[in-house]
Design goal:
457 residues, alpha+beta, 60s Ribosomal Protein L30, Chain: A, 2 domains, 5-stranded mixed beta sheet, two-stranded antiparallel sheet
């Protein structure tokens, strides 16, 4: 199944790609279905199931659904307009999406957190319904938010990946083994093969512009996070730390009094800046998810600011390489914390970042694949246990450590010739199997791990 670099890297809003962006996208899709239907609906209902129910409040899923039904989308999100729309819905008990008459929707009655009725297909499920004046259902659809902002209907989910029309691409690799074989036969880098595949959908100029826009959005998010102060929303009273840490690092720079390991603090602060912005509901790029959005930007910023010889145009190859690895992980396992734990989010992000860094540092395809494998392997088994259902603890720091692991993995891979014991494909398969075996309390339900071990939460 072909996944574009612009499928994996989507501009959206925090705090969660699966719990905020996904439900908003699902609501927009349901409105489209309602516009195309013969029914004249009077009202709307939504029920949230599985992880969307258990951690929906902390992930702003309720707000996302309301705003989605009011016509908002993640890519065109305006915070000021959104707050006004939420106030209007609270006052009028109805939504007014474009192209449809006002529809009754009382959040207290029509938005249901169903903790007792999981939907078999996926742990991130929501059911949207349109009703007549008597409250009877006219149109209903189950949606699955499968991670990274991707949303599938029940029928699409059952059909499986790649069921729809696929573009005819010159390098249709569905595994790392196929990717390496095609690279060896063609003599091309992973980034060059990925670019050739992207050309099936858009010209080079559009690819370059899109990659540049992705990085510009990531970089702007870092800068906002490094400048902001205060306490993050949600009730845990978690203070933003990125600005203070960054100011200390800048004050120490050039004094020759800090040990070499302080470079880890630079990587961490870039990642923490992004994830503090995400936790505050700011604009981020799924990389491949919101919960893991800080890893790749942090590694790119580290490469650009701290590694001699880096080049701005190389960021495109970094993103294309990272997308190739992320596509393999998503196709063969998962990038969803609710499905496979945080190994599927920060672990996947670290693998993507390690591959991208190894590529721009001159690594061969085998070294790039090795870098991705090392990074993913050493996140295997990592649970998703957000305290109070918020994407704050341990998520913010975890992105910093993911960036450090990614750089270490790339460096180790570049010290070798690319041959290694565990293939990336085997590591991806192990991650999927580990996720299947992991108890649900450790998969973004906030029913286990740190979420219940921290006092007063």
């Amino acid at each position: 199944m072909f996944l574009s670099v612009f499928d994996l890297f989507k501009i959206g809003i925090g705090p969660s790609s699966s719990h905020t962006m996904g439900p908003m996208v699902a609501a927009a899709r349901f409105l489209d279905a309602l516009r195309a239907s013969p029914f004249t609906a009077q009202g709307l209902r939504c029920s949230l199931h599985g992880s969307l129910a258990f951690t929906g409040k902390g992930h702003a899923t309720d707000r996302a659904v309301i705003l989605g039904l009011a016509g908002f989308t993640p890519e065109a999100f305006d915070a000021g307009l959104a707050e006004a729309a939420l106030r209007a819905v609270a006052e009028t008990r109805q939504v007014a999406p474009p192209g449809l008459p006002p529809l009754a929707f009382d959040p207290d009655r029509d938005l249901i957190f169903d903790y007792d009725r999981p939907i078999a297909g996926h742990p991130n499920a929501l059911i949207l319904s349109a009703t007549d004046p008597q409250g009877d259902t006219l149109l209903q659809q189950i949606y699955y938010s499968i991670g990274g902002g991707f949303v599938l209907t029940e029928a699409e989910f059952q059909a499986g990946p790649g069921a729809g029309p696929q573009p005819d691409v010159p390098f249709p690799f569905a595994s790392a083994a196929q990717m390496l074989a095609m690279a060896a036969e063609s003599g091309l880098s992973i980034a060059a093969m990925k670019r050739a595949n992207e050309r099936a959908l858009r010209p080079d100029a559009e690819i370059d512009h899109g990659c540049d826009r992705i990085w510009a959005t990531m970089a702007a998010c870092i800068e906002r996070g490094l400048a902001a102060e205060g306490t993050l929303p949600g009730g845990l009273s978690v203070r933003r730390r990125a600005r203070a840490i960054h100011e200390k690092l800048r004050a120490e720079a050039g004094l020759n009094v800090t040990p070499p390991h302080v470079i880890n603090d630079w990587m961490s602060v870039y990642a923490m800046a992004v994830n503090e912005e995400n936790a505050a509901g700011g604009q981020v790029v799924t990389a491949p998810t919101n919960g893991a959005a800080g890893v790749i930007p942090a590694v790119i910023r580290y490469w650009r600011d701290h590694v001699p010889g880096s080049d701005a145009t190389g960021i495109r190859d970094f993103l294309l390489t990272a997308a190739a690895i992320g596509g393999l992980i998503k196709h063969n396992a998962s990038i969803s914390g609710a499905e496979c734990g945080c190994q599927a989010e920060v672990g996947s992000a670290a693998a993507m970042a390690a591959a991208g860094l190894a590529a721009v540092l001159g690594g061969t395809p085998m070294q790039v694949e090795n870098a991705a494998e090392i990074a993913l392997e050493h996140h295997l088994g990592m649970t998703c246990d957000p305290v109070a259902g918020l994407v704050q603890v341990p998520c913010i720091e975890r992105n910093g450590l993911g960036a450090i692991k990614a750089v270490s993995a790339a460096s180790l891979a570049l010290r070798g010739d690319g041959t290694h014991f565990v293939p990336l494909d085997a590591c991806i398969a192990t991650m999927q199997a580990t996720g299947r075996d992991m108890h649900d309390r450790y998969k973004e339900t906030s029913l286990g791990g740190l979420a219940v071990a921290v006092p007063n939460c």
